[in-house]
Amino acid sequence: METKEGFHGIGRRERRIIEAVGPTRGCGGRRDRLAREEEGGAMIEAGVVVDLEGVPLHWHLPAGRTGTSIPDSRELWDVLWTNRERIAGFAHTHPGHGVPGPSNEDVTTFSAVELALGRRLAWWIASADRVAVVRWIGPGNYDYGTEPLETDPSWVDELRRRSK
């Protein structure tokens, strides 16, 4: 049963952890919509698989992506699985400005992908002007911490370009 906060199928401890991650960004709120309009267009989510050398391996730009979601695909899973020993992580965009944070769906996806791959990854989230990296801090399945970056990774400008 889904609670009024929108958490589905998780216990109280996990719910508290996800709530502690902080407010989600890029969920289509009025402030984000106004920021996109000021920039001259709506941002749609885009993603990239990044290898251990910081080089993009695969741009994830599936049909059906919107400003608040990016669908999974068999192609993305195949890239992650085939390259599981050489990937550093996955990055995606959120609309708006400021330090982005993961949504509840992001956190559960991070956990599920890492469990399936058998290893931990970096999960970058880029807004229009900032980037943060999200990593598992443990001990629970949904214990992730967010660290704002002072310097953007080399591939971030291209990720933002592909989000327009």
Describe this structure in words.
The structure is a single chain. This protein has helices spanning 12-20, 30-39, 74-82, 104-117, 156-161; strands at 47-51, 56-60, 87-93, 122-126, 131-136, 144-148. The protein is α+β, with helices and mostly antiparallel strands and 164 residues long. It has a single domain (12-161), classed as 3-Layer(aba) Sandwich (Cytidine Deaminase, domain 2), CATH 3.40.140. It has a six-stranded mixed β-sheet. It starts with 11 loop residues before the first helix and ends with a helix. Mean pLDDT is 83; it is low at 1-40.
Strand order of the largest sheet: 2-1-3-4-5-6
Order of helices and strands: HHEEHEHEEEH
Helix share, percent:
25-40%
At CATH level 3, the topology is Cytidine Deaminase, domain 2
Strand-helix topology:
Elements: H1 12-20, H2 30-39, E1 47-51, E2 56-60, H3 74-82, E3 87-93, H4 104-117, E4 122-126, E5 131-136, E6 144-148, H5 156-161
Provide keyphrases for this structure:
six-stranded mixed β-sheet; alpha+beta; globular; 164 residues; 29% helix; 5 helices; Cytidine Deaminase, domain 2; single chain
